[in-house]
Amino acid sequence: MTFEPRKKLRIIVLVHEDLVPPDSLDGLSDKEKLEIKTEYDVTSTLKKMGHEVYPVGLYNQLKVIGDALMEYKPHIAFNLLEEFHGYPLYDQHVVSYLELMKQAYTGCNPRGMTLAHDKALTKMILSYHRLLVPNFAVFPMNRKVRRPKRLKFPLLVKSISEEGSVGIAQASIVHDDEKLVQRVEFIHRQNKTDAIVEQYIKGREIYVGVIGNQNIQTYAPWELVMEKLPEGAENIATLKVKWDPAYQERVGVATRAADLTPEQVKTLERLSKRIYRYLFLSGYARLDYRMTEEGQFYLLEANPNPQIAHREDFADSAEYSGVPYDQLLQKILTVGLNYAGRA
Ligand SMILES: Nc1ncnc2c1ncn2[C@@H]1O[C@H](COP(=O)(O)OP(=O)(O)O)[C@@H](O)[C@H]1O
Ligand SMILES: [Mg+2]
After folding, report:
1. CA 110 to each of CA 7, 93, 96, 172, 310: distance values in angstroms, whole numbers, following the listed order
2. Which of 17, 132, 157, 285 supports an S-S bond with 57, CB 3.0-4.6 Å?
3. Is 209 in the same domain as 330?
4. Residues sharing a CB contact under 8 Å with residue 234, sequence separation 6 or more, in sequence order
5. To the nearest whole number, what is the mean pLDDT of the chain?
6. What is the number of the ligand 1 atom nearest to the C-alpha of 236?
7. Last residue of a domain, one of 199, 222, 253
């Protein structure tokens, strides 16, 4: 059964309790506006499209969702959660709860989230399918750091599960064992997660938006460029590159449609659809790649439920591919309503 897309829907929007969007942005500081931008863009656009929209703020009580389901009887839950009870990895369990309640929702299913949130599992699955991923090793917390011989420098050290480049800086790229140990210990201490150490892939930074369940589409490959990168620095998406506007200005950070040949675009589209299927993803996701000088694409990670604020990469690449923001949100709803994985 497919869903009639033009119908007006009752939608609950699941957000962190500190990020419940106000009806208007009037009187908020720039910082406050930025914090709730995604939540505000999504709810205000859905309302403009004529849907009935009920934001539901959550911290650690599933009962709040249960109550909202009883009260509003929503056609669908728009999932904007990135954590539950303070843990990023718990968001997948909230989706499991929605499945248990047989409630339609937007975005990724629990299994896809669990696999994609683990940067080691992701690569194990893809290398089973003989796709290119960086060679890697996991360094668990509270264990001595010993580099396996097969891992050759330069290496990149990061958290196994953290998002948003938390813990990633130029110092994440290491060239000897001493620096490797220091950086792994830094990740253990600061991120409080296991560390994953990967072969450093030199090249261009390319993102591909993917949407759908069985029938999937990709949006135009997007590239992150740094036009004024200082001598000796590498073009990696560090914490500062992602979140510090003054630094972004200084190193000339920009994102735009990647300048690729039609064959390269075709290769990336086919690769992205395969990866999306192999990782059991559904809803929508952004795949992060490095493209080497020889034109090979290495998947770094898959991001289910990526950032979908207006004017951010995912929405920009959709728009560039002919899907304006309101149509993108409508498509996300339709894909959620048609997801067949629920009982
Ligand atoms: N193996 C690698 N080779 C080259 N660059 C990498 C590698 N792993 C991570 N990076 C750089 O660090 C950034 C963040 O890493 P990623 O795994 O995508 O974590 P996050 O979930 O924080 O986005 C990437 O976008 C890329 O620029
Ligand atoms: Mg990433």
Report:
1. 27, 7, 6, 30, 25
2. 17
3. yes
4. 170, 173, 200, 202
5. 95
6. 27
7. 199
329 contacts 228 by C-beta, under 8 angstroms = no
Q: Given pLDDT bands bounded at 50, 70 and 90, which one contains residue 1? A: very low
Phi, psi at 84, each rounded to 5°: -145, 135
**187 within domain boundaries:** yes
Find the 167 Cα to ligand 1 centroid distance in Å: 11
Residue 30's domain spans which residues?
Answer: 10-107
Shared domain check, 78 and 155: no
| Domain total in the chain | 3
Q: CB of 168 closer than 6 A to ligand 1?
A: yes
CATH of the domain at 74: 3.40.50.20
Q: Are 171 and 214 contained in the same domain? A: no
Chain centroid to CA 148: how far? 30
Q: Is the CB of 137 under 6 A from ligand 1?
A: no
Q: What is the mean pLDDT of residues 187-199?
A: 96
